[in-house]
Amino acid sequence: MNTKNILLGKSAFNAERETFLPINTDSEKKSLPQEGKADGRHNLPDSQALLFGTVEQDIAQKIAQTAQLTHSALSEHFGGYSARLLPIVQTWDPLALIQQIQDIPGRMKTSLDNMFGAFKARYAIMEPAWRSAKKAYETFRQEYGLIRPPDYLPIKSIILWFFCIIVAEASINATLLWELTGILIAFGQTILITTVNVLFGAALVGLCFRYKNHDSWQHQLPVLLCIPVMLAVLTFNLGVGHYRDALVEYQYQAQEERRQINQNWDDADPNPEPGILDYTIKAMASMKASPVNIKSILSGLLIIVGIGFFGFATQKWYSMFDPYPGYRKRALALEAKHKDYKELVETSRNGLDKEIADAKARVIDEHQKVITMRTQHSALIGQAETLQNSYAKWVLVLEKTQNHLLAVYRDSNQQARSEPAPKHFNNELAIDDQFTKPPEFSPPDLHNTEQVVAATSSIGDKIQDISDNIWQQFNLLASMQPESDA
């Protein structure tokens, strides 16, 4: 219903907007003067009449019908209010709500105790292992007077460094061999040479030489391995130089044979093409005869390049790892134990936080439900009271409308009469008492709402006490820290 007014004889209550519409009496105001004059000319109603005439009765009947329909519509609307309040009241059990709210801290405490118990059990396993790793780390530092953390490059940097060293040496060596063997064979051979120099010889010498920093001679024994390895690398690189000399010599011989074949084709009996084994045997024989007798400058340069890269790689192997062997291992062990412990602490802390937050949220939710129910209950009652007051005012306006219409009819009637008007023309007509009072609205009551609200407030303090206690116990165990370095 979206009209701004209502015709006489219909309900004036707009339930959608909860307003009372004004009565539209335009048609009555137009017809009543004519009807009054028509009845007046016939002196109707009679001067001695005690009852209303037909037109007056029709006005009173339409007004009464409007009041009755509006009263019924408002009463029906109040019935909808009661239906909306009924679920609230039916679920309202203060004692049950208070008990439900008071159970939240107990359930939270049980869950927190279980989570803390699981944390303690895992902590009991981790703590001794962490203590042992920490003790080994600190003992090593005290033994060598170390106040710095282990110094070493990340594994990615180490790989990148040695990849570059290998490629550089292999490329240089390949340029000294490819004219004799071909680029592919030369590069493959030099990769082998570089691997021996950089990844085998330099690694053993560089890593083992760090053991000189130990105090006890038992721990320094790996340093003795450096001497034979260095001699082996030197011998290997001399052998590489003799190997290149062998390649040069065989190449010279091959050229002489081709020259002879060209001079005397019929008598030529060429030797088969020599292989790597032949070059190696030739180089070993040359090494035995005179290890340092290198015939070619380029072969000597090949030896210098190999030994130079061996020395550079040895220095890198020494510097890329901490000069105190075992320091990094102990530091990594301590770091791993502390990382596992931190993950346990963070996981447990997050679990405790979530449980406490959930408990607080449940209390807030229950508290909000109580407030919402109380607010809805009060709001509906307030709306009902407002409508009752509005109805009472509307009925007064309706009564004035009724008497105004009667006055319009009576004035025109009196002007047309030749006899005196009935005495009741001087009296106003009141609306029936059963419609002047608004419909009754007796909503069901919500008992002890303040008691429930108070219970939710006190539970928050109890939850806080429980959480403070569990955090105090937790923080006593969650105190392991990694070793700090000056």
Question: Keyphrases for this structure?
Answer:
single chain; 486 residues; mainly alpha; two-stranded parallel ribbon; two-stranded antiparallel ribbon; 74% helix; 2% strand; elongated
Question: In a few lines, what is going on in this structure?
Answer:
The protein has about 475 residues and is mainly α.
Task: Map the helices and strands.
Layout: E1 6-7, E2 13-14, E3 19-20, E4 23-24, H1 26-41, H2 54-90, H3 94-144, H4 155-181, H5 183-209, H6 217-220, H7 226-263, H8 276-289, H9 297-320, H10 327-416, H11 433-436, H12 449-477
Strand order of the largest sheet: 1-4
End-to-end span in angstroms?
Answer: 84 Å
Report the sheet with the most strands, covering strand number, pairing sense and barrel closure.
2 strands, parallel
How many runs of DSSP E, i.e. beta strands?
4
The unreliable regions are none
Structural class: mainly alpha
- Roughly what is the average pLDDT, rounded to an integer? 79
β-strand percent reads under 5%
Computed over alpha carbons, the radius of gyration is 56 Å
Task: Please give the count of helices.
Answer: 12
H and E order: EEEEHHHHHHHHHHHH
The best one-word shape is elongated
Helix content: over 70%
Provide structural commentary.
It is a single chain. The chain starts with 5 loop residues before the first strand and ends in a 9-residue tail after the last helix. The protein has twelve helices and four strands, in the order E-E-E-E-H-H-H-H-H-H-H-H-H-H-H-H. It has helices at 26-41, 54-90, 94-144, 155-181, 183-209, 217-220, 226-263, 276-289, 297-320, 327-416, 433-436, 449-477; strands at residues 6-7, 13-14, 19-20, 23-24. The chain has a two-stranded parallel sheet. With 486 residues, it is mainly alpha-helical. The protein is elongated and about 170 Å long. Helix 4 (155-181) runs antiparallel to helix 9, helix 5 crosses helix 9 (297-320) and helix 10 packs antiparallel against helix 12. A hairpin with a 4-residue loop joins strand 2 (13-14) and strand 3 (19-20).
